[in-house]
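Notes, Module 5: Reading structure tokens.

Key idea: the token line is not a picture. It is a compressed description, and you learn to read it the same way you learned to read a sequence, by spotting repeated patterns. We will look at two proteins. The first is printed below with its tokens.
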Amino acid sequence: MAPRKQSSFVQDASSSPGNEVPDPSKENGKKPNKSQQLKKVFKEYGAVAVGFHVGISLMSLGMFYLAVTSGVDMTALLFKLGFDEALVQSKLAAGTSTFVLAYAIHKLFAPVRISITLVSVPFLVRYFRRTGLFKPPTPNP
């Protein structure tokens, strides 16, 4: 029999406060980084989380491509938003194609997209469960 893997604590209506299982990444006093949090959301909410994140990623890439092809000076805009000059210059090499430039800017905004996914997906799933589109979660044995 394989040893059981500890999972982070998720409280639902069927669990009581005494049944908390600690998250191993928080035992050292460290908060998990955004990619670890995103993996947890993908595992917990499955296709909804993946679909939502892919959707906002495609919209983000499309918006940045549209901005670059429209002639918006993205370098000046990124400096105004507070991005570090060395980071911007490393991502936006001179003479790159329109798509590569849009993709580089899209990658700079990855933390924003991840944060939106982390916040939005639990609300979406709760809403879908309330409206009856999704089944309620099964209680842990």
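Here is the second protein, with the sequence above and the tokens below, as before.
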Amino acid sequence: MTTVYSWRAKPDRIAEFAEWARGATAEAARFPGNLAATVVHNEDSRDFHVVHQFATRRQLRDWLDSPEREKWLRHARKLAATKTAQQHRTGLETWFHVPSEAAATMKPPPRWKMWLISLVAVYPLVLAFQAWVVPLTAAWPLWARSALFPVVLLTSMTYVVMPLVTRLLRRWL
């Protein structure tokens, strides 16, 4: 489960908001089930996108309802001019969405396009994994080999391949 909160910092509080965002994501990273806590921010912008990924909807809810998060939100309200968007996503559409003011009102691409791009992006990773990693792990127990594949594949897809592919194919999507 992924949730994105987009904020616009007050003009004179951008550096403080950046520090707040780092602290808030570090706090979220300590919560059970946290897969990633990230801040997306361009240096020439007042906009900050705080991305939280949790293993389950319940674990995300635990973070969202926590007193720790509430403390961070109270502080953010002093530094932010406004909260510009809030988005919750599950499944493949998370790979095909970059938070922004314009994108906040846009729909994800059609499912067939997401499927096609995912297939084209996954195939080279699977091929490389089979060629180079599988032979090195042949002596490992089945459970360990089986666990390694989704960890490598999903991490590569989420943090390397899909951000690049969706940026390159944005107009088509």
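Summary for the second protein:
- The longest strand covers residues 80-89.
- The two ends are 22 Å apart (CA to CA).
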